[in-house]
Amino acid sequence: MVSQEYNFKLKNDLSELKALHLHLNKWGQGIGLPADAIPRINICLDELFTNIVSYGFDDDREHIIEFSLDGDNGLVTINIEDNGIPFNPLEKIDPDFPENVESAKIGGLGIMIIRKLMDGVLYERRDGKNRLTMRKNIQEKQ
After folding, report:
1. Are 51 and 1 a contacting pair, CB within 8 Å?
2. In angstroms, what CA-CA distances link 12 with 48, 55, 58, 61?
3. Which of 4, 12, 55, 79 has the most other CB atoms within 10 Å of its CB?
4. Which DSSP category does 40 fall into?
5. In the beta sheet, which residues pair with residue 122?
6. Domains plus CATH for the chain?
7. Which helix (H) or strand (E) holds 18?
8. Can you give the three-state secondary structure of 42-71, one letter per residue?
9. Which residue has the higher pLDDT, 134 or 106?
């Protein structure tokens, strides 16, 4: 994996999801991430971005969500920053997993999925911004 930091910004609009996926694919392919790592990271970014856009702001103004992706020595680090309402998703208790599809409730599983797919997730509120950092150990194919 070639070391490379990649930064980009998106508006708080769900129409930006396609751009989010394109940025991740461009960066992931550029540093040589294994093909199976990109969809897993994409699930996490998609979930977090959707939640920030849907619930993170208490006004109708345009806000910017900042992303920083870095890969080095088999470790991917992703930072997401927004100036929305203070919210630590890690304080949310994982819901009980439904016994079957019929009894499943919509929503509430995203943070649990992120915790399962990532090797580390940290939250901090700094300088009026939410900052979520995710880390994933990537096994390079020999």
Report:
1. no
2. 12, 10, 12, 9
3. 12
4. H
5. 133
6. 4-137 (3.30.565.10)
7. helix 17-31
8. HHHHHHHHHHHHHHCCCCCCCCEEEEEEEE
9. 134
Angstrom distance (rounded) from CA 88 to CA 43: 19
For residues 88-113, average pLDDT: 69
Output the pLDDT for position 81: 98
pLDDT tens digits for range 29-51 = 999 999 899 999 999 999 999 99
How far apart are the C-alpha atoms of 64 and 83, rounded to whole Å?
A: 8
Q: 37 phi and psi, to 5 degrees? A: -80, -35
* Residue 120 confidence (pLDDT) above 50: yes
Beta strands per DSSP E along the chain: 4-11, 64-72, 75-82, 120-126, 129-137
> How many CB atoms are closer than 10 A to CB 6?
17
Burial classification of residue 67, based on how many CB atoms lie within 10 Å of its CB (0-12 exposed, 13-18 middle, 19 or more buried) = buried
For residue 124, the model assigns a pLDDT of: 97
Tell me how far apart the alpha carbons of residues 60 and 77 are, in angstroms, rounded to a whole number.
31
